[in-house]
């Protein structure tokens, strides 16, 4: 297995790479579409603004490359904005198109008196605890979050885990070999490393 991590100038690239290296994975940074021919798993981290991230992917030619990769149900992991980008659009950037790998919209947390962004550790509720993605996890594992926006998938069957902050929201999704998380596995210590290992094993 070889993990390709998309480096498009937006994301915690080195931390994600170091997390995969910590579990013994072979990694390579991807900056051009032709590089994905030699990998088995594609990872899209992300930090920053939805529209800016989408624009950078398009500049590199990676926007359509990711669409083609996932259309064949090849293993994909989206993290944070790399998760949000798999949906059709975001209220953060109304004029920007998402990858539209799954139907849904990215929304901003409502003002209910809680601090925005949602930052720090929070537990998630697993939709399918027996899914191999959650192997060797506690019943309600804790992960690290940093975000002001959250996706609302159109189809509940895609929701792999739910977190509650201001509103219940989809903390993770899965459709076949497509996996994406709003939380940061690379910042989530043991549970995060376990998840990355499970992703590789469950989608190989």
Helical content class: 10-25%
Radius of gyration: 15 Å
Q: In total, how many domains does the architecture comprise? A: 1
Report the end-to-end length measured between terminal Cα atoms.
8 Å
For the secondary structure, the number of strands is: 13
Classified in CATH, the superfamily is Class I glutamine amidotransferase (GATase) domain
CATH hierarchy: architecture: 3-Layer(aba) Sandwich
Specify the overall morphology: globular
Overall average residue pLDDT: 96
What about the largest sheet?
A: 8 strands, mixed
Strand-residue proportion: 25-35%
Could you tell me the CATH topology label.
Answer: Rossmann fold
What can you tell me about this protein's structure?
The chain has 204 residues and is of the alpha/beta class. The protein has one domain: Rossmann fold. 24% of the residues lie in helices and 30% in strands. The protein contains five helices and 13 strands. It has an eight-stranded mixed beta sheet, with helices on both faces. Strand 12 and strand 13 form a beta hairpin. It is globular, with a radius of gyration of 15 Å.
SSE arrangement:
Elements: E1 3-6, H1 13-22, E2 27-30, E3 41-44, H2 50-60, H3 62-71, E4 76-79, H4 81-84, E5 89-90, E6 104-108, E7 118-123, E8 125-126, E9 142-147, E10 149-153, E11 159-165, E12 167-175, E13 178-181, H5 189-202
């Amino acid at each position: 297995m070889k993990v390709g991590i998309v480096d498009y100038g937006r994301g915690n690239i080195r931390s994600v790479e170091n997390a995969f290296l910590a579990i013994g994975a072979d990694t390579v940074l991807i900056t051009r579409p032709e590089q994905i021919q030699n990998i088995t798993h594609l990872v899209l981290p992300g930090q920053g603004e939805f529209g800016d991230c989408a624009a950078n992917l398009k500049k590199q030619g990676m926007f359509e490359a990711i669409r083609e990769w996932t259309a064949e149900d090849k293993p994909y992991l989206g993290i944070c904005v790399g998760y949000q980008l798999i949906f059709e659009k975001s209220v953060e950037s109304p004029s920007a198109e998402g990858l539209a790998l799954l139907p849904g919209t990215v929304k901003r947390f409502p003002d209910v008196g809680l601090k925005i962004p949602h930052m720090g550790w929070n537990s998630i509720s697993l939709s399918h605890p027996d899914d191999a993605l959650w192997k060797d996890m506690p019943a309600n594992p804790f992960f690290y979050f940093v975000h002001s926006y959250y996706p609302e998938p159109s189809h509940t069957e895609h929701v792999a885990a739910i977190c509650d902050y201001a509103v219940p929201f989809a903390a993770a999704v899965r459709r076949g070999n497509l996996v994406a998380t709003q939380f940061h596995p690379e910042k989530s210590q043991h549970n995060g490393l376990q998840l990355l290992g499970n992703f590789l094993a469950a989608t190989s």
